[in-house]
Design brief:
Elements: E1 13-17, E2 20-24, H1 31-44, E3 51-55, H2 61-64, H3 67-74, E4 77-81, H4 82-93, H5 96-108, H6 112-126, E5 136-138, E6 143-144, E7 151-155, E8 164-168, E9 173-177, H7 196-207, E10 214-217, H8 226-249, H9 255-262, H10 269-288
Parallel strand pairs: 2-3, 3-4, 4-5, 9-10
Antiparallel strand pairs: 1-2, 6-7, 7-8, 8-9
Helix pairs in contact: 5-6, 6-10, 9-10
Bound molecules: zinc ion (2 copies).
Length: 294
């Protein structure tokens, strides 16, 4: 499915389930996205009305953008973890997310022009999120019936607070969404006062013992080798923490200083937002490990 920014495409997955079909994630809310999905469903011989369950791995707009439209057409039941559902409601009904972002950028030392550009881009992107009320909440340990056997919900907070993977134990498949992606280091989310990197790393620990033959991510191609990928990703974050520590010892004073040193080029507002929030997540993690002062 096409994307408007970020990775070149998003994968959504269609599986037979009792009474019809299950769709894992929906793609973005756009005409192009909707027609791509309609065509793909038609090629598979599935009418949108045959969708019974729409399972949303998390609240990002590439994953849940079309959920409302698809539910209206199909009457399918929509699932998401409560933590992300709450965040989505907050984003659609209050200014809290925007205000938190603004406060964070002030504390991060973001120059006013970039702060305004990020807030403008945030307002534009907010329209891509659906005002969605959920039919069911995904809960860790819950199993959804499907053609490849029960899909076990594995709550994997980190990329977002309510991110979930789905594990088909019988088929040894892991629908890993944005938690495990082959060629991209998944973005670590940011929530004020939360150790999102710590949560992300713990979520990797949880997946490690799973017997997985094939990883089916939301971006990029399916791949194999879960434990190798996990080891590599742990290393990446450990090195990044050391790098940040080095810059702090070398005179970086604010999160904005760190962004400039870690990404020494001009960043577009959305990329700056991702960069600065990720730096804040690293700093929160390092603070809890008492590696750096307040
Ligand atoms: Zn995401
Ligand atoms: Zn995504």
């Amino acid at each position: 499915m096409p994307m408007m920014f970020g990775p070149p495409w998003i994968n959504v997955y269609l599986l037979p389930c009792p009474g019809g079909w299950m769709l894992i994630d929906t793609g973005m809310s756009s005409e192009e996205s909707y027609s791509t999905l309609s065509l793909a469903l038609a090629e598979t011989g599935v009418a949108p009305e045959h969708l019974r369950h729409i399972v949303l791995t998390h609240m990002h707009p590439d994953h849940c953008g079309l959920a409302l439209q698809l539910r209206d057409i199909s009457g399918a039941e929509v699932w998401m973890h409560r933590a992300d559902a709450d965040l989505l409601t907050q984003l659609k009904t209050t200014d809290r997310t925007r205000d938190q972002l603004e406060t964070a950028m002030r504390e991060a030392g973001t120059p006013p022009a970039m702060r305004n550009a990020v807030l403008e881009s945030h307002a534009r992107v907010s329209h891509l999120f659906p005002a969605l009320s959920l039919d069911h909440f995904l809960e860790d340990g819950l199993a959804l019936e499907s053609w490849v056997g029960p899909l076990e919900v594995v709550w994997t907070p980190g990329h977002s607070p309510g991110h979930c993977c789905l594990y088909a134990r019988d088929a040894r498949l892991l629908f890993s969404s944005d938690h495990v992606i082959e060629d991209i280091t998944p973005h670590v989310g940011w929530m004020p006062g939360e150790d999102m990197l710590g949560l992300y790393l713990q979520s990797l620990d949880r997946l490690e013992p799973f017997d997985v033959e094939r990883i089916l991510p939301a971006h990029g191609l399916p791949f194999t080798g879960l434990s190798g990928w996990i080891a590599q990703t742990r290393n990446f974050h450990a090195r990044r923490l050391e790098e940040i520590d080095g810059h702090l010892k070398d005179g970086a004073r604010t999160a904005d200083d760190l962004v400039r040193r870690l990404w020494p080029r001009d960043l577009r507002p959305l990329d700056y937002q991702l960069a600065v929030t990720e730096v804040l997540a690293y700093l929160e993690h390092a603070r809890r490990k008492s590696r750096i002062p307040e």
